[in-house]
């Protein structure tokens, strides 16, 4: 469908590689369709795996080296996804909820919400996306940086008043069923998160996006993060099973000024002219 207005989508993520695992499908699909896509990455990811899989605090793990590697991988992944603009906020990775690094005052999760949100609001003012996507702060993955990024994105949208819609990435029952089935095909068992949480997330889903035509680009972007793939369940899947598991992406519509229907298959519903 022709559109007289340039469609713009901003994804606000916590770490390098989240743009591929969480929203790689929509970034590739809408970029291919001519929308301008923007990725905001809040942290440098310096607490990810280092060379040869070295973990934070062990020999062979240098945070500056890891950050440089992950930023280079991020740029390659964004090229696979056709991302038009990459914005790096440069905050320090907080690590997992039970890690000592989480208590660092400069860890992203400890940055004042209003301070980080103002930076994202400035990027929204510059890029003027109609749609912003981040995480569900009450979802299945309670990483401190993901929760904070979600809250930062929501406050930035509210502060700027520019985006017409805000979405949260949702991994509900259907997502985990597809992933478990695909992993079982290669002999990997994974129970997934709490079924009650999954059911709640599934019930909240408003938007299902078909990304089958670009799913291989999503897989390539994921594998561009070579330093982290050993810890990725999705990266273990061969192309056919990856496509089976990740040919759709699901979202919860959090904020909407255009009166979208209760169910939709397009993030830009109500915005196309």
Q: What would you say this structure looks like, in words?
A:
This protein is α/β, with parallel strands linked by helices. It has a single domain, classed as LmbE-like (Rossmann fold). It is 39% helix and 16% strand. A 7-stranded mixed sheet has the order 3-2-1-4-5-7-6, sandwiched between helices. Helix 1 runs parallel beside helix 2, helix 2 packs antiparallel against helix 7 and helix 3 packs across helix 4. The protein is globular. The model has no long low-confidence stretch (mean pLDDT 94).
The main pleated sheet reads as: 7 strands, mixed
Tell me the β content. Answer: 15-25%
Residue ranges: pLDDT <50 for 5 or more in a row? none
**How would you spell out the order of helices and strands?**
EHEHEHEHEHHEHHE
CATH superfamily: LmbE-like
Strand order of the largest sheet: 3-2-1-4-5-7-6
- Structural class estimated from helices and strands: alpha/beta
Provide the residue-averaged pLDDT. 94
Assign the CATH topology: Rossmann fold
- Report the radius of gyration as a whole number of Å: 18 Å
End-to-end Cα distance, whole Å, is 9 Å
Q: Could you say which overall geometry the principal axes of the C-alpha atoms support?
A: globular
Corresponding CATH architecture: 3-Layer(aba) Sandwich
DSSP helical segment count: 8
Helix content: 25-40%
| Number of discrete domains | 1
The CATH class name reads Alpha Beta
Let me know the number of strands.
7
């Amino acid at each position: 469908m022709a559109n007289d207005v340039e469609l713009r989508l901003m994804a606000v993520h916590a770490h390098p590689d989240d743009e591929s695992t969480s929203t790689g499908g929509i970034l590739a699909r809408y970029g291919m369709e001519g929308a301008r896509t923007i990725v905001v990455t809040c942290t440098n990811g310096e607490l990810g795996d280092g060379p040869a899989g070295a973990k934070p605090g062990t020999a062979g793990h240098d945070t500056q080296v890891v950050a440089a590697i992950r930023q280079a991988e991020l740029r390659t992944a964004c090229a696979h996804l056709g991302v038009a603009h990459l914005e790096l906020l440069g905050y320090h990775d907080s690590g997992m909820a039970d890690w000592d690094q989480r208590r660092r005052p400069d860890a992203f999760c400890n940055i004042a919400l209003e301070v980080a949100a103002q930076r994202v609001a400035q990027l929204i003012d510059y890029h003027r996306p109609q749609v912003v996507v981040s995480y569900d702060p009450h979802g299945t993955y309670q990483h401190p940086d993901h929760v904070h990024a979600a809250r930062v994105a929501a406050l930035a949208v509210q502060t700027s008043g520019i985006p017409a819609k805000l979405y949260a990435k949702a991994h509900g029952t259907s997502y985990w069923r597809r992933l478990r089935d695909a992993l079982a095909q290669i002999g990997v068992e994974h129970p997934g998160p709490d079924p009650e949480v999954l059911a709640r997330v599934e019930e909240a889903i408003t938007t299902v996006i078909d990304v089958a035509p670009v799913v291989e680009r999503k897989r390539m972007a994921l594998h561009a993060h070579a330093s982290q793939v050993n810890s990725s369940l999705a990266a273990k899947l061969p192309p056919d099973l990856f496509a089976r598991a990740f040919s759709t992406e699901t979202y919860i519509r959090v904020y909407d000024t255009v009166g979208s229907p209760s169910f939709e298959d397009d993030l830009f519903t109500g915005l196309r002219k």
